[in-house]
Amino acid sequence: MNPEHPSTVSVEVLVIGAGPIGLETAAVLGDEGRDVLVVDAGAIGNTIQRTFPPQTRFFTSPERLAIRGWPVTSPTEEKATGEEYLAFLRAFATGKGLAVRTFSRVVGISGREGNFTVRIAALDGDEYSIHAEVLILASGGIDRPRKLGVAGEDLPHVRSQLGDPHRYFGRTVAVVGGRNSAVESALRLYRVGAHVHLIHREAQLYSRVKPWIKPDVESLMAEGQIVGHLSTSIVKISPGGLELAQVGSDAESQWISVDDVLLQIGYEQSSELFDLAGIELTGPQRAPAVDCETLRSNVPGIYVVGTAIAGTQAGFKVFIENSHQHADQVAAALAGRPAPKPVPTRPLPES
Ligand SMILES: Cc1cc2nc3c(=O)[nH]c(=O)nc-3n(C[C@H](O)[C@H](O)[C@H](O)COP(=O)(O)OP(=O)(O)OC[C@H]3O[C@@H](n4cnc5c(N)ncnc54)[C@H](O)[C@@H]3O)c2cc1C
Known about the structure:
- The protein has 351 residues and is an alpha/beta fold.
- It has two domains: 8-144 and 267-335, FAD/NAD(P)-binding domain, CATH 3.50.50.60; 147-263, FAD/NAD(P)-binding domain, CATH 3.50.50.60.
- 21% of the residues lie in helices and 26% in strands.
- Strands 1, 2, 3, 4, 5, 6 and 19 form a seven-stranded mixed beta sheet that branches.
- Helix 1 (20-31) packs parallel to helix 8 (326-335).
- It is elongated and about 60 Å long.
């Protein structure tokens, strides 16, 4: 037992997940005088720290990422990078005096409304309990990279995170996918001197790829500088290359030689926390069952906020900019106030 970990901690509200919406919810409830603790399996903003390649900009504008009037600023006045937003989240958590325990993974939930016991696994392997009256799951929706489901995708040269593009200098890389992450990775790899194949099963790149990237990549593909394989699926990944098939055609498969394969085909939500809490999952996205006004789940005393409410999103509809209000919805529900009026969607959602 680590003496730094008290054997039990008691709080009124435990927020699980220190992403932007978990922190925002904690701040709103704290401002209402509630005793709130936030725990996260990783650092604050863990999803962003884990999944954003270095110096990657949000699609969403800074004013839509801002929380409760705290501005997201950048020295360039451009859209924020992941690093800039993490700095913002640190400043917000400090400025609001939020109690946050990082590297504290929830591994067990028992009890009932008014008296939950949550088991926490600390990074050093120690486990201890937190007692809370109310639980708020702000655990996000992008836990693990989606898999292709083809032979060879567990080979060591197949990755799902770009990381620092520098490592790919001089290498031949197959980037798989056609949405923002894939297209941005293809461009960055090309610019660090990799020879890039971009493989996408649709006939065109996703229409809402960041408009400051899409024309560059389409031009490079038209010139053959990035080798585009559209309407193409992957049959098999092998050491040294890939077998490709034309979608909807009986033509023979094509072999291309590559050093690395980078899968950029999205993420899936983990249902682990919902299963621990006994929350029902519904619909094709396996979304947690919540009341849309209060965000209360089917388990009394447990609420779900942020992108976690949407399950595994096929096309992103729930993201940071339209989750800010979740904090007000839960605050109203806990205080017994009527649900706040829905905030109208901005004319052009930035997903
Ligand atoms: C390259 C890239 C670009 C993106 N661009 C945008 C964009 O422009 N706009 C946008 O809105 N979104 C964007 N996203 C998605 C963005 O990361 C999410 O929308 C955002 O992080 C969701 O915030 P959240 O607070 O709902 O959840 P998250 O930020 O996902 O936070 C969930 C937290 O819960 C924690 N957690 C989960 N399980 C446990 C557990 N068992 N115990 C303790 N803690 C746990 C996680 O560690 C995590 O920190 C992008 C994602 C990527 C990869």
